[in-house]
Amino acid sequence: MLPFGRRALRRWFKKRAAEKIIPRAERFAQSLGVKYNQIQMTDSKFRWGSCSTKDNLNLNWRLIKAPVFVIDYIIVHELTHLIEGNHTPRFWNIVHAQVANMDKAKKWLKENGQLLLSDL
Predict the structure, then answer these.
(1) pLDDT digit string, tens, across residues 32-77
(2) Domain map of the chain by residue range?
């Protein structure tokens, strides 16, 4: 269990993540013309996001520590699964059309993603 100060800071990060990320997801969903069921901020050490078969989006609260272009890439990536379930060329074309710097975001995550996984 985390000490009280670290738990409080983690709660603060999670709250800020929801406040920043959920409205961005709503805007991108509208832009893509998709509807999701609900969004949850998750606490995974293995995924930045996921989209369930019930159209629920799960986004890692640790993304709040990433640059906005990375957050946008993850949001759009997951929302695009509501259109195209697999990582087909069509899938990647849709993501790239919404996030022009998709390759930069993927590179940033590959090079810096581990930094986001630290507890704080």
Answers:
(1) 999 999 999 999 888 999 999 999 999 999 999 999 999 999 999 9
(2) 4-116
Fold of the domain spanning 4-116: Zincin-like (3.30.2010)
Residue 80 and residue 97 in contact, taking contact as beta carbons nearer than 8 Å? no
For residues 5 and 38, give the distance between their C-alpha atoms in angstroms, rounded to a whole number. 30
Query: What 3-state DSSP class applies to 56?
Result: coil
Q: What percent of the chain has pLDDT over 90?
A: 84
CB 56 within 8 A of CB 36: yes
Tell me the C-alpha distance between 75 and 95, whole Å: 10
In the DSSP assignment, the letter for residue 35 is: -
Predicted TM-score of the model (pTM) = 0.92
Is residue 21 within 8 A of residue 42, CB to CB? The reply is no
